[in-house]
Amino acid sequence: MDKISEAVTTARAGRAVAVRNRYAGSWVTRFPAINGAGLHIIRQGTLFLIPEHGDAVRLSPGDVVFVPHGPPHGFSDGPCAFRDLPPARTPSPDPEPYDVDFVSCCYHLDRGRGHELLTGLPDVITLRADDPGVRGLADLLGEHASGEHPGDDVALPAIMDLLLVRLLRIWHDGQGVAPSLDPGVARALTSIQENPEKPYSVRQLSALARMSPASFARRFKEVTGDTPGAYLIRRRLGRGAELLRHTDLPLTVIAGRLGYATEFSFSAAFSREYGVAPGRFRRRHRDEPATPIRPSVSGAPGRVPPATR
After folding, report:
1. Which pTM value belongs to this model?
2. Per-residue model confidence (pLDDT) at position 297
3. For the HTH araC/xylS-type domain, which residue ranges apply (predicted)?
4. Which CATH number among 3.40.50.2300, 1.10.260.40, 3.40.50.10260, 1.10.10.60 corresponds to the domain 183-275?
5. Tens-digit pLDDT profile for residues 248-263
6. What class does CATH assign to 3-177+292-298?
């Protein structure tokens, strides 16, 4: 499996959420930090991205804001400093008519971390999506963002998968960088991703990487942020969360696919990582529709204070 496919598969273990944002007049809104990957697609009007660090960025229809690993950020009708964004509060209703329309979505991981391909990217990336495929997916995302129509729970994750794939391709093509990692570590990661049920040792993985065990363990942690053993467990349980969320496989079958000897050993490991038993996790996410997570918003009259340069 290639690295972009791995990254999207890992993200898919999270909860898919989306919201359509429409504003008029003077406004400012904050999106809190999340554990996951998200994006915003500008459909109408001119607005400003307010990153946690750095200057405000002017956006127009067709621009995409890609947030690979979920830091806080905001938007406004004019440039401002991040510190001037409002605290969390209930948003005001969508205005009619509206000046600005953008759609936002994310995969929110309850526990664990995102794929190293995503966590290694900049905090916030702005892209110009002239790709007609992205525009078509943006229209579909806006249609299904409300979560109010039959089939939205199925359609939303599928649309988000395709958007993530296309945006990662656009980013890497634009940077002139192939979506790859250290070749030796990449071989080990691919083997873990394709065969998470195997009881890998550091010696076995270092042999795949064609490195000494000590050099491999050091380089592996530099790339992933985890020891090989911790990474293997995280990947197994992330795959388990995905199977629980999207399939009806019995726990004994899932446990076996992930290399656990019994359903009970899988349940214990899953509960430690996610803070909830697998059965309850499955029920909770089956019962929970893909409803929007609303950002905090302020629509008080008057201009937003200018950014400090």
Report:
1. 0.60
2. 43
3. 186-284
4. 1.10.10.60
5. 899 999 999 999 999 9
6. mainly beta
